[in-house]
Amino acid sequence: MSNVDYLCGKYIALDVDNPRHFQNLNFSYLSLLFSSLNIQIHLNMTTLKSGDSFPSDVVFQYIPWNEESGEITSCGIPINYNASQEWANKKVVLFSVPGAFTPTCSVNHVPGYIQNLPKLREKGADIVAVVAFNDPYVMSAWGKANGVRGDDILFLSDPDAKFSKNIGWADEASGRTGRYAIVIDHGKVSYAQIETEKGVVKKSGADAVLASL
User: Fold this and answer.
1) Of these residues, 105, 129, 161, 209, which one is catalytic?
2) 193-199: long-range contacts (C-beta < 8 A, 24 or more apart)?
3) Are 35 and 41 a contacting pair, CB within 8 Å?
4) What is the Cα Rg of the chain in Å?
5) Where is the Thioredoxin domain (predicted)?
6) pLDDT below 50 — which residues of the chain?
7) Can you give the residue range of the structural domain that contains 170?
8) How far is CA 163 from CA 133, 135, 157, 208, in A?
C-alpha cells in the first residue's frame, strides 16, 4: 500500500506495509527536518474492521445519570469509563458524532438510536453509547436534553478525540470525533463503518447498525 506525499518539489511514495522503507530512518531527525521545512508526513492509520479485537486501553469520561442530578442544569461529577473493561463480555453498539447539540447529530443521528432502542435490545445489545469530543458536562446535558434517563444510552466524552484519532476516524481539519458506528461483541468488532459524506447519517445510523446485528 503506497502513501504518496509531496516533498521539496517532488512526489515521493512510501510503502507503509514494507518495513524496509523505514528501518534505516531516524524519525527524530526527520521530524525536526520536516518541521523546519513545514512538511508533513501522512501515514495510513489502522482503522477498526470486522473481526478485529477492540483495543485494550480505551477510556472515556462520563457523568452517571441519577435522580438527584436529573435536571439539565445539574452538573454531576465526571468519572473515567474504562470501555475496554466494561465491554469485554458484552454486546455493545457505539456510535460517534462530531459534536453535541449540533444539527445533524441532534436531528438525524441520536433520535434514530433513541427510537430504535427497544429493537437494539431485542437484537442483544447490552449497551448503547454515543461518544463525541465534547467534555463530559456537555455530553451529560445533551443526554438530558434528549430525555435519556439512566443508562439507556451512555453519553460519553472522548477527550481530545483520542480514541477516534487512534483508529484514524477523527476529522483532521477540526480535530473532532468523526461520524461512525462500531458494534463490539464480547471484545470483537463485528461492524465498523464511518460516514464519508458531511452531514449524512447512513452507515452510522441506527437502521444500518440494526441490519448488521
Assistant:
1) 105
2) 194/47, 194/169, 199/104
3) no
4) 19
5) 48-213
6) 1-45
7) 52-211
8) 10, 14, 10, 22
Residue type, 84: S
Let me know if residue 44 belongs to a domain.
Answer: no
Query: By three-state DSSP, how is residue 188 classified?
Result: strand
**Domains of the chain: total:** 1
Other CB atoms within a 10 A radius of the CB of residue 59 amount to 16
* pLDDT tens string 153-174: 999 999 999 999 999 999 888 8
User: Among this protein's residues, is 75 annotated catalytic?
Assistant: no
Q: Is the residue at 47 inside a domain?
A: no
Residue 21 forms part of a structural domain: no
- Planar angle of CA 43, 96, 80, nearest 5 degrees: 95
Hey, which bits of the chain come out as E strands?
2-7, 10-15, 59-62, 79-82, 91-96, 127-132, 154-157, 180-185, 188-194
